[in-house]
Write a structure and sequence with these properties.
The chain is α/β, with parallel strands linked by helices. The radius of gyration is 27 Å and the shape is globular. It contains 12 helices and 36 strands.
Amino acid sequence: FKQKTAYEIVDCDWSSDVCSSDLGLLAKLDRPTHGVLALALGLFLTVAGRPAAHAALTNTSTDLAVLVVTATTNDAALPAIRQALDFLGTPYTVHVASAQPGALTADKLYAGTRGFYASVMLTDSQLAYSPDGATWTSALNATEWATLNQFAADFAVRQVNWSGYPTPDTGFNWPTAAYDSTGNAARGTWTAAAKPNFPYLVTANQFAISNVWTYLATPLDTNTTVWLADAQGNALIAVKKFADGREVLSMTFDNAPWLIHSTVLAHGLVTWANKGMFLGERHTYLSAQIDDVFLADEMWPSGEFRQSAKDWQTTIAWQAKFNTRTLGRNFRYDMAFNGLGTVPGEYANDDLTPYVRTNKAMFKWISHTYTHPYLDDISYTNALTEITKNNQTATGLALANYSRANMVTPNITGLNNPQFIKAAYDAGIRYLVTDTSIPSHRPASPNVGIPNWVDPRILMIPRHANNLFYNVSTPAEWESEYNSIYAAYWGRDLTYAEILDNQAELLLGFLLKGDVSPLMFHQLNLRDYNGAGNTLLGDLLDAVAKKYEQLYNFPALSPTMNGLGTTLQQRMNYNASGVVATRNADNTVTVTVKAAARIPVTGLVNGGVVSYTGTVAPVISAEAYAGQRITYVSLAAGQSVTVKKL
């Protein structure tokens, strides 16, 4: 991976110190050495790919977990696989083959008729690496390959190769071409065989593979089922079925966590690999929190702006239209308000407050304190007054969809102030937000909250900043400020359309991954800037929706802030539960936990409880979402339940 291209970071990675406003380097996945490597390893892999003969196992069970095998920790697909499984909440083990030579033995894969994994994912079909920088080899030896293949055959475990040079052993003819798809995307059409594994995907559209090294190869024979093919008949994704029953899916292009195609494909790959059933769940979320409602904010480059009744009317009309789109069907803005702005005389010619009184029910409402003070040094008494007076404002305005459990603190201050935190808890606040552009404000893993550092009884919800700045209300203002920051990086000024596209790509990434975190915006971003019903934020979300709806066919969820908090806490409990789930030979699934939790099992259709431990029956519920069934099993600490699978 030797080429690097400058880019603007378009995501906030929970496991590293980069965020949406940083600049960095994007590794372009460059695999020109793979052809030489594949020829060198071809004989070895053909021999190693043949499992040792013995009688296949019967009456087997498999744990609902994934084995991830990588040559080294630097394999580009490894973080893409981790990202997919971490966001879903699917248990997995990473085996770094080069660091543990000869260690992939049978006892690591199964015991008797119980397999420890329901699927296997390889970062590279050949697990190729260079131990000395000059010579290349496979990180697994012949015995390990045979052991892995025999396990897959005996336990009917599917395998996904997330990248690799196409070879006859993986179901392809030798490639006829290889190229860098940056600026020249490989475009494929989905086949009927692939579509059941991607119920969430708009499979009628061509699918683009770009910004990676891509190989073009045709399918080898009828044992290879093509999933995605280009116009020339090259198989970009295909499944090979072996004589021993093994099924191996391979992709002829590279993958990485920041790539759109990797993120979009991930859920379908996990679904196929695990035969439609796995621990974990996937939802898409879109929560836009609008700070400083009822107040005036400074503008770029000077002056100030406060919404009017006309701007509010425009926002209502835009949201109603957005609700007719696939992405926005459930969407409602979250209005984080400051009660001071509603006081008569605070703003001359205030037509906003009286208009809101009769046009408020279509939004969600969050306290942003009464006067918008910095809270890092505020006293307990003053903090309690800020909270109480804003609650009184909510009552006076009769705000629906308002909970005293939620607050967005001004400038995300006060989170370390014991006086404010005590006042917040005493006033009933249970959820605050953080700013993920600050490393300490990022969660330890995807879709979990952060217990407040002063009082862990308050859960902090990670919130994403972005480059739709707090102080811009028109395209000209946004262009001016954006280019004052980034023109040197881009080498020129960007147009409004280019900025929109750039930022829409950022937000799209959050949605495609299933990131639950809300997004931060401000009241200036909802100005009707041309008198024709356009706002900066409306334009941005429309641009996101256009991209999203080319890929996904289901709506995002838009929970209340305390609803988000509940979701994060449920994931935290799930992560800490020590859950083990096993698909049994008798068509049942057994779920066991150490700590109490609500366990999501995607693809499980509950046919009834067969047995359970403990004195109280577990609570089981289910939902249909994005073309899949998700069953939730709520268990007490130490409890186990066996469910018949329909």
